[in-house]
Design goal:
Length: about 200
């Protein structure tokens, strides 16, 4: 019990642990709200889920400096495998630009900037999907050279990426592959799977 509590405390004291915990709870609440027959209770759960999503958005702004630092550190990264290096650059830069664009979108949504918040958030979705695609391709390349334990771990990570990508892509304009063709329950379930995997890896 003490060991479990120590581990939980360690996870929740880190940005990644808090973010993944909030994300997991967010999608659990969404799924629960969708299956409740009592609409009033469902609305209460949706309101709480919205608060958790808003909290994640605010917390992410304080992670922007770390993302910029990660982008700067790329100048020192190994280039032995140049393709892997390029994919690493693509992922890091995409997430860094995502952070900047999301900050602008957040401020625009708060009416502090005269920008189109909806359009900026849409750009964030494109950047996130691009980062996921590059990350999946990088994982596929690396998995062939791993030990069994590392391979199993990266398979789990890959499953999380794929779940997020399928769910996120479904939010694109209708008519592009499966975009707009999945139900809210399907996309939420996929996002929950990705969130649970990411949270599990924090432990």
């Amino acid at each position: 019990m003490v060991s479990w509590l120590d581990r939980l405390t360690r996870v929740l004291s880190q940005y990644s642990g808090r973010d993944k915990s909030l994300r997991t709870l967010h999608f659990i609440l969404l799924l629960s709200a969708n299956h409740l027959k009592d609409r009033a209770k469902g609305q209460h759960l949706l309101a709480l889920a919205k608060q958790l999503s808003a909290a994640r958005l605010v917390f992410r702004q304080f992670n922007l400096a770390a993302m910029i630092n990660a982008a700067v550190q790329l100048t020192r990264a190994s280039r032995t495998d140049f393709v892997d290096f390029l994919l690493q650059v693509a992922v890091t830069i995409a997430y860094t630009i995502f952070g900047v664009v999301e900050l602008l979108a957040w401020l625009a949504d708060a009416k502090l900037l005269s920008l189109d918040a909806a359009r900026l958030f849409r750009y964030c979705l494109y950047l996130w999907l691009g980062a996921l695609a590059a990350g999946m391709f990088r994982l596929l390349r690396n998995m062939t050279n791993k030990s069994d334990v590392q391979f199993d771990d990266e398979k789990l990570t890959f499953l999380g990426y794929v779940s997020d990508f399928i769910s996120g892509f479904a939010s694109l304009p209708f008519g592009v592959l499966w975009a707009g063709r999945l139900t809210s329950t399907q996309t939420t379930t996929l996002s929950l799977i990705a969130s649970l995997i990411a949270l599990y890896k924090c432990f």
